[in-house]
Amino acid sequence: MKPWFKNYPDNVAHEIDPDRYRSMLELFHDTVDEYQDNTAYISFGTELSFSELDRLSRDFAAYLQKYLSVEKGDRVALMCPNTLPFIVAMWGIIRAGAVQVNVNPMYTPRELRHQLNDAQVDTIIIFSGSSPVLAEIIGETEVKNIIVAGLDDLVGKGLPNPDVAPEISSYTPFMEALSTGKSADYFEPKIRHNDLMFLQYTGGTTGLSKGAMLTHRNIVSNMLQFQEFNKNTFRIGAETIITAIPLYHIFALTVNGMGFLSLGAKNVLVANPRDMPSFVKTWATSNVTAFTGVNTLFNGLLHTPGFDEIDFSGLNMCVGGGAPVQDAVSDKWEEVTGKRIYEGYGLSETSPVLTLNIGKGDLYVPGIGVPVCSTDISIRDDDGNVVADGESGELCTKGPQVMAGYWNNPEATAESMTEDGYFKTGDVALLDEHGFFHIVDRKKDMILVSGFNVYPNEIEAEIAKMPGILEAACIGVEDANSGETPKLYVVKTDPDITEADVTEFCRQGLAAYKVPKLVSFLDELPKSSVGKILRRELRD
């Protein structure tokens, strides 16, 4: 008997059947059959029903198969914000039997090139506003098929849209792909449990991201775990969730994009959550019952005029993840909305949900809560030994939602697993006397910026390319807006280099959230006797 089972609601099972569905496609068919005429998604005020999603995704899958020769197992990149094309393309990719490679639309050319080449992608669906980045590096990739999506696609309200980069001369508009696929034959491939569904790229300590291989069984399992664990909260077929965290991120992808769809929920998409006033207006007219977010998003809404005037009487679930939710934000959120933020924990490698802090009855203990059904957590020391309850160690986990491994990287896969088959998260945690888990610290030097993993090695490797820089070291420091932000310590050989010069150089090769906000110049960096830079001394 696991010590956390006492915190499970009485009617919640300790185990789920991960083989209940043969694939996410089977779960998709069951869902659209049951909720045909219900609204599945809303974007810019335009509604898409479950039956329309079924029809359009079928057309897109047929286009991929017939005109682009996409076959089962091929990797197809999807690089779009939270819009209807993302949803339709996603299910079209899945229905074609392909493996979806989720790409951040804000990536720099360097980051995009690595991901496309590592995943061996030759087909990409991309937001027009991101096309200039692709144009810069397409000649250095295997990409030969480009489908361009716009904000107004499937919305039809004349929304303004960025132009496609002029260097991209050969591409297919998303709406043309749909209309062409409508008259094409579609052949549903036979998809099994262990077939890949997503390549979800996660930051690497070497400076290069790795593709976590998520199978249909992984995602089905996490759907069923999420549903079972929250069965007393959800109202099947009657939920409305607002999705502002990006769908290319594993949190929104699985929980919002898959989980709530399988509940027959209405999903309100927010394409640009940085436009907080518009976000608040959308919320105010949507009768929201559920919301998932990261600390910065909760905090941003609380500081946006008009948010505290919304009617929150229908709101019955708020989940925070991606980064720790600060107590001050959580307390203010409950004061304004009347609902507590329940924190969850997971990683790209775990599909992602491992724990939730929704307890039994009114019992609430701050932290990451307890493992979801069919999930085991073991806290271990550096030698792999299980530590006593209450002691800190690396959080290691086993469950049907844990990835099949890293794409084309058996060495990294082996390093991430214990000898007895537990995935090593790299996070330091402890189990308290009440049977609840808490994250103590991160074992590695990862920095969490608004829920996104940022690795110092990647930033250091980038700034090392700058003329006039001798060496640099990066650490994370607290930030009121993003939770943490990168700070760069630099030793320069060119005395004329300024903080602004360093920041601008980083901006050319790194996504915006990875660019150091703070730069300090030192005469030398602290090092060990063997010459290793000591980041911990910089933190101290």
List the SSEs and their pairings.
Layout: H1 24-34, E1 39-43, E2 46-49, H2 50-68, E3 75-79, H3 84-95, E4 99-102, H4 109-119, E5 123-127, H5 131-137, E6 145-149, E7 172-173, H6 174-182, E8 196-202, E9 210-215, H7 216-229, E10 240-243, H8 250-262, E11 266-269, H9 276-284, E12 290-293, H10 295-302, E13 317-320, H11 327-337, E14 342-346, E15 353-356, E16 370-371, E17 376-380, E18 393-398, H12 410-415, E19 423-431, E20 437-442, E21 447-449, E22 452-454, H13 456-463, E23 469-479, E24 483-492, H14 499-509, E25 518-521, H15 535-539
Parallel strand pairs: 1-11, 3-4, 3-5, 4-8, 5-6, 6-7, 10-11, 10-12, 12-13, 13-14, 24-25
Antiparallel strand pairs: 1-2, 8-9, 14-15, 15-16, 17-18, 18-19, 19-20, 21-22, 23-24
Helix pairs in contact: 1-2, 2-3, 2-6, 4-5, 7-8, 10-11
Descriptive overview:
This protein has 540 residues and is α/β, with parallel strands linked by helices. It has a domain at 447-539: 2-Layer Sandwich (GMP Synthetase, Chain A, domain 3), CATH 3.30.300. 29% of the residues lie in helices and 24% in strands. Strands 2-1-11-10-12-13-14-15-16 form a nine-stranded mixed sheet. The longest helix is centred in the N-terminal third of the chain and has 19 residues, at 50-68. The protein starts with 23 loop residues before the first helix and ends with a helix.
